[in-house]
Amino acid sequence: MTRQAFQDCIDSLHLVIDQIKESAHLLHDSVNQFYDKVHPYGLHLDMVAEATCQYGHLVCASERDVLPLIFGAYYHDAIEDARFSYNDTKKQARLYMDDEQALMAAEIVYAMTNEKGRTRAERANDRYYEGIRQTPYGPFVKLADRLANTDYSVNHGNESNRHMKAVYIAELPHFLEAINPHSDDPRFGVPQEMVDHIKRLLQ
Questions:
Q1: Residue pLDDT tens, the chain, 203 long
Q2: Domains in the chain: ranges and CATH
Q3: Rounded to 5°, angle at Cα 28 from 34 and 65
Q4: CB-based contact 75:50 (threshold 8 Å)
Q5: What's the whole-model pTM score?
Q6: Count of alpha carbons within 13 Å of 133, Cβ hemisphere only?
Q7: How far apart are CA 9 and CA 174, in angstroms?
Q8: How far is Cα of residue 130 from the mean position of the Cα atoms in its chain?
Q9: CB contact at 8 A, 103 and 70
């Protein structure tokens, strides 16, 4: 889609998007989840959604995919962190979109959900990244998540979080290769503009 067409879709759907945003915030508030131990978790969700809105035109294949993509951004941690199941996620998505769109939205969220593991490496293992690569918009939402986390760590984080900059620098080559299916289908794209944004933050 063109940037303008994508923005026009967001503008026309703003009431529904606001409802998705509010419900995602409330979900994470309900389990007392915080971001960087001090902020409401909605801060992170908003940053991921902002990156999605900024760069979504580079991957979005149709107007029908806009809502599932933005839902995926706001709900990307719902299963992993907020005690939602896959079926809960799909049921929630159906409040805002039709069954086909809700399935796409739930698949994005499911792909973002870490594996069980004791360490960061175990939780983000090969199977996890394979699921991301196989899911339409999975690579993009994961990249938006990484962009949001990197931006926060570099520009907003407190001392306990800023060490993550070094982690993101060390992980970046493997991370980019792990999420990239090298597909001609735009829905699986890893936009270079976003990669460059992350690299600038990590300089």
A1: 999 999 999 999 999 999 999 999 999 999 999 998 889 999 999 999 999 999 999 999 999 999 999 999 999 999 999 999 999 999 999 999 999 999 999 999 999 998 888 898 888 888 999 999 999 999 999 999 999 999 999 988 677 677 888 899 999 999 999 999 999 999 999 999 999 999 999 99
A2: 3-201 (1.10.3210.10)
A3: 120
A4: no
A5: 0.95
A6: 17
A7: 34
A8: 16
A9: no
Terminus-to-terminus CA distance in the chain, angstroms? 31
What is the residue-wise DSSP string for the chain? Answer: --HHHHHHHHHHTHHHHHHHHHHHHHHHHHTT-EETTTEETHHHHHHHHHHHHHHGGGT--SGGGHHHHHHHHHTTTHHHHS---HHHHHHHHTTTS-HHHHHHHHHHHHHHSPPS-SSHHHHT-HHHHHHHHTSTTHHHHHHHHHHHHHHHHHHT--HHHHTHHHHHHHHHHHHHHHH----SSGGG---HHHHHHHHHHT-
47-66 burial, b at 16+ Cβ within 10 Å, e below that, comes to: bbbebbbbbbbbbbeeeebb
